[in-house]
Amino acid sequence: MVCAACAGPREDVMGVARSLLGTTEKTGRNDGPVIEAILASTGNRKGDPYCAAFVYYCGKTAGYPKLYPRSAWSPDMVQSPTWTRANGGQEPRAADAFGIYFPRKGRVAHTGLIESASRSVFVTVEGNTSPEAAAGSAADRDGGGIWRKRRLRSQVHSVRSWVP
After folding, report:
1. What is the pLDDT of residues 82-127, one digit of tens each?
2. Strands of the chain, DSSP E
3. Residue 120 lies in a domain
4. How far apart, in whole angstroms, are the C-alpha atoms of residue 62 and residue 12?
5. Has residue 15 been placed in a domain?
6. Does this model's pTM top 0.85?
């Protein structure tokens, strides 16, 4: 679904992500037709976590199947980050993948796409989250659908730009 009138891969990917906003799971168990299609795009099944699969699916559906890692493992989306909370780096842009670090897991355990960035906030589009979940909570990384969120920069561990 490449958009000939769009500005390029960043807008194409974000167009797909935005089109999925408000998609919810059928029973709250990482299921339903759209969620299962997202999971299938990475070779995963109904019930598996899908935040990283959502990132891959958006790229693939936008016509760029090799843009992001074909993975449902959130750390894969921010490997070799181009920006980190600790060290800065390349300013995050639309369609860059971000990672949230969960101390109890000892790793990045949630990911999604940056929609826009300001001096203090990232606006994101994410799968497998809940719209009002507290950052770092269980519902933040295992929620009921695809939502737009506002995340303080201090909540984001790292960002990787995959778009050339």
Report:
1. 999 999 999 999 999 999 999 999 999 999 999 999 999 999 999 9
2. 83-84, 88-89, 97-102, 107-117, 121-129, 145-152, 158-160
3. yes
4. 6
5. yes
6. yes
